[in-house]
Amino acid sequence: MSSTQDSGLPEPKFRRDDTEWRANLTPEEYHVLRQAGTERPHVGEYTNTETEGVYTCRGCGAELFRSSEKFESHCGWPSFFDPADSDAVILRPDNSLGMRRVEVLCSNCHSHLGHVFEGEGYPTPTDKRYCINSISLRLQSADGS
């Protein structure tokens, strides 16, 4: 992931240097959150969960999504039709891998979360699918467990 100085993004509110990120994340988490990797489909902890609660950024703890906006898209990753707050995420063009996509970043720490897709015909209020890596998230269940 390129630095925020050359990416055109505002400075993140939550910062760590690369050594701190590596010390606080597993190698798999680091690969996805800090190097814009993707976890394999259908293996993520939250892909099929229906637990009610709030999904936070694994990198910094910021609230990102709520279970009330999660839906089953059968794509292999947790899918949401909207973030918890419009300022919770940053969207930026991603033309990597020869595709045109829109990357989803945590607005608080600029960690890579996944991608958002539009116009796929899902019966949701926004017609958007925020396709998010489970490894980028932590679920705080509504019952506190």
From TrEMBL:
Keyword Metal-binding: yes
MsrB domain boundaries: 18-142
Biased composition (Basic and acidic residues): 12-21
GO (cellular component) term, any one: cytoplasm
EC number: 1.8.4.12
InterPro entries found in the cross-reference section: Met_Sox_Rdtase_MsrB (IPR028427), Met_Sox_Rdtase_MsrB_dom (IPR002579), Mss4-like_sf (IPR011057)
Reactions mediated catalytically: L-methionyl-[protein] + [thioredoxin]-disulfide + H2O = L-methionyl-(R)-S-oxide-[protein] + [thioredoxin]-dithiol
Name of protein: peptide-methionine (R)-S-oxide reductase
Gene name per UniProt: msrB
NCBIfam families membership: peptide-methionine (R)-S-oxide reductase MsrB
Cofactor(s) this protein cannot do without: Zn(2+)
GO molecular function, one term: metal ion binding
Lineage start: Bacteria, Bacillati, Actinomycetota, Actinomycetes, Mycobacteriales
Any GO BP annotation: protein repair
